[in-house]
Amino acid sequence: MRALWFRFLDWFSRLRGRRPIPREPVSIRPIGVVRNAVTAPRMDGWASVRSDIIVREELSHALDGIEEYSHIIVVFAFDKVPESELKERVRPRGDARLPEQGVLATRSQLRPSPLGVSVVRLLRRRNNILRVQGLDAIDSTPVLDIKPYYPNYDAVQDAAIPGWARALEAAE
Amino acid sequence: MRALWFRFLDWFSRLRGRRPIPREPVSIRPIGVVRNAVTAPRMDGWASVRSDIIVREELSHALDGIEEYSHIIVVFAFDKVPESELKERVRPRGDARLPEQGVLATRSQLRPSPLGVSVVRLLRRRNNILRVQGLDAIDSTPVLDIKPYYPNYDAVQDAAIPGWARALEAAE
After folding, report:
1. pLDDT 10s digits, A71-107
2. Cβ distance of B26 and A22 shorter than 8 Å
3. What residues form DSSP beta bridges with A132?
4. Interface touch A65/B99, C-beta < 8 Å
């Protein structure tokens, strides 16, 4: 009965040119795990961190060719954030002087979907193990996807950010 | 019993300095859906496509502040790829002249985790609806996360890619 009602809603939404937001969760099996020396979450100091991404052995050949890229995109799961800590709005970097933002307008971990996306330098590949630099994920973080970085597609050098964020970058 | 065995394996892996790859899938509820005029998958012609991302209404305030960014990162689900089509290796763009690559060394949809990551221009926000340009996702695609784009963090203008990929870009 419930399913029928959803199907009706679906049909009705399409009729009106609207798209229903899928209710079914997407289930993603980790393809690997992060191994590094960082055991507790932290704000800064990731640039020099070297990590190994251990990929499931049966996916080893799915990495073939990635060693030809200098940078990769790593999608990982924030698996240490309890649901009770999720927030609708946050202060960037927990700094009371900065304007409160919607959590989706920040890179905070307290977001509705526990996903991190980071661009990192690929130092080397050995079979199913990628050594990377600058990954801001702690030891044992589940890795969900790895993608080659294409400047033509992924780099927007002149992207605009708010004034307070520019000031923050300049101060670093 | 099975759980106990897994816990033993876990402990043993840590003892040896290894990290077990998590077996539990990560479950992610879509935060929104794509609405545009593209109803069938395609390779090219995305740059001019305008899409609306309809975010769940209860997350409307979680977007506050995002309108101050010129670009956002959209994480979405390839929900139309049957599991039987997943591949370990693919030819980029299905082109027989290009060298076969591991699927994780490409942006192909036939990857183990059905995740897409795209950088798009944010044209405007109206409450829970973001209008964007250049999102390479078809109508009704589930959106899993939205993040502001920070050039300092996300842009690597001089990232290296293989020669065949450079030649491909130059030919476009």
Report:
1. 999 999 998 888 888 889 999 888 899 999 999 999 9
2. no
3. A51, A122
4. yes
Start-to-end CA span in chain A (Å): 57
- CA nearest neighbour of B153 among A124, A149, A143: A149
Single-letter residue type at A50: R
Q: Are A30 and A146 in contact (CB under 8 A)?
A: no
Whether A138 contacts A36, CB under 8 Å? yes
Is A77:B26 a contact under the CB 8 Å cutoff? yes
Q: What angle do CA B154, B136, A166 make, to 5 degrees?
A: 25
Q: Measuring CA to CA, how many Å separate B114 from each of A136, A148, B108, B111, B140?
A: 22, 15, 10, 6, 15
Whether residue A109 contacts residue A33, with contact meaning beta carbons closer than 8 Å, is answered with no
CB pairs under 8 A between A and B: 278
Cβ of B69 within 8 Å of Cβ of A104? The answer is no
Strand partners, B142: B33
Calpha distance B114→A41 (Å, rounded): 27
Of A18, A64, A77, the CB nearest to B89: A64
The ipTM estimated for the assembled molecules is: 0.90
User: Looking at chain B from residue 27 to 56, which residues have their Cβ under 8 Å from any Cβ of chain A?
Assistant: 27-35, 54-56
Structure tokens at A3: 């399913």
